[in-house]
Design goal:
The chain is mainly alpha-helical. The protein contains four helices and no strands.
Length: 109
């Protein structure tokens, strides 16, 4: 039987998902503004070239779903390890979001 996840851990998971979605919703307009060559992820770049904006969006959504499942497993099996495990993807998502804003959306040109 599954045990409920405490509110603090749920908030942490929601924050990770939120940051990943912030990266996604800023990526598409940033790429539209500066071009796909600015994308540093070669998989996302190839998907964009092949399928348009839907390619990297689907990749982000699928990878975020897998990430949440992995974090749920960590929360249940190793509860004291959830915070460090969640901080890494949260920091990477925030770095992607910040990069999209600074080098894409706020860029003059």
């Amino acid at each position: 039987m599954l045990r409920p996840i405490p509110a603090r851990k749920s908030a942490l998971l929601a924050a990770v998902v939120g940051v990943q979605l912030m990266d996604l919703v800023t990526c598409i307009p940033a790429v539209a503004r500066v071009g796909i060559d600015a994308e540093s992820n070669p998989i996302a770049r190839a998907l964009y070239v092949s399928y348009g904006a839907a390619g990297p969006a689907l990749l982000k959504l699928m990878s975020t779903a897998i990430l949440v499942l992995a974090l749920l497993l960590i929360a249940r099996r190793f509860p004291t390890r959830l915070l460090p495990a969640a901080l890494v993807p949260a920091a990477l998502g925030f770095a992607g979001f910040a990069s999209n804003v600074v080098f894409g959306l706020a860029r003059q040109g």
